[in-house]
């Protein structure tokens, strides 16, 4: 497995791959990897000749410095996991290279990014879309793999791809869960053992409770601070805080 920090080093390899008509599957991540990320890698490996993963904790998508600083980081373990999963190359870019323009250019979406998470995290999706646009430009992959866990993010990126005539196909992959039903997330590491058990009721209620109002009430009764429970695009979405950890999930209805 090759590891790149400088974009130019990756670009040399990318050109070589293109010359040999090898397809590239790309998985962008923010690290603190778990089985959810590895499921995207596995899908990419199945469908492409070469699997490329980026790890970059993108500062422009965080709403506070504190949240950015608290975001879990485990780069040594991440590299071992990706190696074991059979990834061909990883990119660990530095912030100066990604944001050489000091965020002078950015992507803004004015509709779907303003609801659900966007209503509670102003400018979050500007940061997400901008970094993904940059990473898609760098990767020049045939396919890019995204998790349904972040379904709003996936839809926005899929629509951005169409709006900007990008060639990389955006492929969605199912949410990987703990045996308790809790959607795997890098942020789960910040939950206490007790709250990890409690957090699993989000998934249970998303299925069981009849209305969005029932889900909200039941979560509030269990001690969650609920941001939203909403149904849109044939899915039921939830975002709720448990202590100081923000959890999101969604299911098909
Ligand atoms: P992140 O590192 O949290 O930015 O996530 C990188 C990619 O992994 C995104 O496309 C996420 O949707 C996806 N992902 C995160 N958690 C899961 C999960 N539990 N199951 C499937 N995909 C996931």
What does the model show?
By secondary structure, the chain is an alpha/beta fold. The chain folds into 2 domains: 2-173, HUPs (Rossmann fold), CATH 3.40.50; 186-246, Pantoate--beta-alanine Ligase, Chain: A,domain 2 (2-Layer Sandwich). 42% of the residues lie in helices and 21% in strands. The chain is built from 11 helices and 9 strands. It has helices at residues 7-19, 35-47, 65-70, 75-85, 95-98, 117-120, 124-139, 151-163, 193-199, 201-208, 212-221, and strands at 2-4, 24-29, 50-55, 89-91, 143-147, 169-173, 225-232, 235-242, 245-252. A 6-stranded parallel beta sheet has the order 1-4-3-2-5-6, with helices on both faces. Strands 7-8-9 form a 3-stranded antiparallel beta sheet, covered by helices on one side. Helix 7 (124-139) packs across helix 8 (151-163). It is globular and about 60 Å long. The termini are far apart. The mean pLDDT is 97. The protein binds adenosine monophosphate (AMP). Residues 29-30, 36-37, 39-40, 146-147, 149-150, 173, 175-176, 183-186 line the site of adenosine monophosphate (AMP).
């Amino acid at each position: 497995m090759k590891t790149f920090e400088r974009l130019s080093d990756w670009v040399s390899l990318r050109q070589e791959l293109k010359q040999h008509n090898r397809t590239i599957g790309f998985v962008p991540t923010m690290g603190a990897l778990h089985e959810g990320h590895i499921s995207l890698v596995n899908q990419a490996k199945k469908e492409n000749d070469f699997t490329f993963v980026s790890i970059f904790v993108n500062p422009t998508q965080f709403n506070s410095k504190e949240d950015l600083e608290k975001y879990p980081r485990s780069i040594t373990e991440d590299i071992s996991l990706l190696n074991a999963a059979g990834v061909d190359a990883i990119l660990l870019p530095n912030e100066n290279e990604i944001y050489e323009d000091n965020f002078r250019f950015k992507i803004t979406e004015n509709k779907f990014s303003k609801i659900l998470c966007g209503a509670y995290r102003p400018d979050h999706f500007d940061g997400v879309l901008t970094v993904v646009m940059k990473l898609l430009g760098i990767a020049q992959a045939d396919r890019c793999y995204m998790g349904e866990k972040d379904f709003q993010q996936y839809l926005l990126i899929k629509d951005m791809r169409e709006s900007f005539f990008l060639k990389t196909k955006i492929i969605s992959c199912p949410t990987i869960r703990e045996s308790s039903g809790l959607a795997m997330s890098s942020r789960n590491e910040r939950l206490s053992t007790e709250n990890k058990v409690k957090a699993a009721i989000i998934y249970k209620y998303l299925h069981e409770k009849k209305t969005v109002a029932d889900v909200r009430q039941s979560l509030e009764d269990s001690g969650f601070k609920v941001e939203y429970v909403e149904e849109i695009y044939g899915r039921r979405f939830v975002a709720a805080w448990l202590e100081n950890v923000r959890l999101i999930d969604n299911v098909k209805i």
